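Morning run. Coffee first, then this:
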Amino acid sequence: MKSYSIQKLLSGGIVRFVLIFIAVVWTLPSFGLLISSLRAEDDIKQSGWWTATPSQFTFENYERVLGNEGMDVAFLNSLAVAIPSTIIPITIAAFAAYAFAWMEFPGRKWLFIMVVGLLVVPLQMSLIPVLQIYTQWDLNGTYLSVWLAHTGFGMPLAVYLLFNYISTLPRELMESASLDGASHFTTFVRLVLPLSVPAIAALSIFQFLWVWNDLLVALVFLGGTPDVAVVTQKLQELVGSRGQDWHLLTAGAFITMTLPLVVFFSLQRYFVRGLLAGSVKG
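And here it is:
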């Protein structure tokens, strides 16, 4: 019994050491990026970040990034893109996931297979056809165009993940609501939606991070005009035409990380539960 306890402690210590090691290795690049953002341009180009000393630290890079003309407007534009592009697809996906899980209608299984099959379609393949449609409808350069694009690109994964969670809810709960005279809409709003908060919160984090860090979709559908440029486009401009000012990206990266970190820590209590949602049935 004693040997078993020692073996258990050793195995637990090994697991803890491995997890700590992985965490350190995973965060090391971010730590190096933070140190580099606090160094002058000449210091960054002459030596590695691990050679830096506190006496070399400066906020010059942050001042240049924040003082760049139009950066404040770019942050507002990113919010105008990211918030609706997160809320719209998740809202529609939640309704769709409930319909696939608990409603009977012709072709339900085949339609669900088709939606899941869209996960394998590369994003780049649909950019030109969608852009042609937007040109016909005069939607290019508008927020609506990028909202619809992110909704369409994010919908298959959102439906699939939410379906995996909603389908595991107790059938007795749905039958009880039906016997009490509740419609599908009432059941969804009053029962399914509150119970699905962990899955929705976890999915919201992923969707928001994807949209906030996106450059390709914004560049294609919004264009590069200053009035609609997002943060990622402004950071691209900061680098310069030949990439000579890449050191400014170190500060720009941490500035753009601020809001996603706030979103993550606000929803972190749901994050793990949401990741595991629907993984075990019963």
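Residues 64-280 form a domain with the MetI-like fold fold (CATH 1.10.3720.10). Good start to the day.
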